[in-house]
Amino acid sequence: MDQRREALENALLRAARSGGLTRDAARSVAADVCRLDSGGGEMAVKEMLGRLGARDQERVRRIVAALRRLDGGQYGTCERCGAAIDAARLDLMPETTTCRSCAD
Q: How far is it, in rounded angstroms, from Cα 90 to Cα 101?
């Protein structure tokens, strides 16, 4: 799961950078977001979302939700049918919530 967390954190960093944040600012905000159990995580999410366009905002929300699922032990399980999401699908879209069958 450490590899999955790293993929999600990298996706979050890319989303922050696409919002116009400098590399250092993006890393700082992404690090805060990844500490979701602290109050700073929620503030960092709001700060990041305020700087992003609608498409990137939605991606950040999906990534944050995936990090929460990872922390809660539900990551990699399809939210529709309960089946395991294929590793290749998670590699391509680490924030996905559905298996390939349910996504179609």
A: 14
